[in-house]
Class I SAM-dependent methyltransferase (Pontibacter toksunensis), 249 residues
Amino acid sequence: MKIASSISAYWLYTFLLSLCMTACNSSQAQREQVTSDGYSTKEAHPDGTGKVYLGREIAGIMGAGGGGWLERNTRQEEEDVALAIENMSLSPQSVVADIGAGTGYYTFRIAPKVPEGKVYAIDVQDAFITALNEKKRELGLTNIEVVKGGDQSPNLLDASLDLAIMVDVYHELEYPQEMLQAIHKALKPDGKLLLLEYRAEDDSVPIKELHKMSVNQVNKELSANGFQLSDKKDFLPIQHFLLYEKVEE
């Protein structure tokens, strides 16, 4: 009798556990809804949008009010921007797109490196577009073209770029899948895409969780959209330096 009682208790426990797991899975499915475009939605993190791509919640975009932080006096010391640019393998003729240029912190430092080429400074926010044009006129740089980008495309011609860069921008793209596919088209056959992203693997990096990315997550999203990692450097103080090339179609 004791054995039968123990077996009955075991099966009752197993049944109740199964019901609990089913309810939990159902609750999770209700919290995260998959949409027809390959994205899903969930209850938004305080710093997020509630939109999820390949397991990652997309971060909220930094508004033009954050321009002062982009131009902070400590940025070179904290991020070593000069070293990042030095490792971009630019030639005097390079055509570069700074996607999500913001105030142009990178744009205006890259332009002198490509005197016979061009830098497209691309942003979706009108306030940044205005500021970029004003600074371009102020500095008299003729090889910079300011472009109003879209949320799904940088609005550039196909096969026009040697290098596209996104500096702490990719994690905020509202439509990463569509933007990556548009960038893929805008790059020349041997063109490269460079992502600089704060390191999610390093808890000491003083950046909010959703505004950092791991190499594994970046690789997952880029490989799903026609890119493969061609170079990874670890010389920057708090960012990944990830260079991608187009996969042959």
User: Anything to note?
Assistant: Confidence is low (pLDDT under 50) at residues 1-30. The first helix runs from residue 2 to 31. The chain has two domains: 1-31, 62-246.
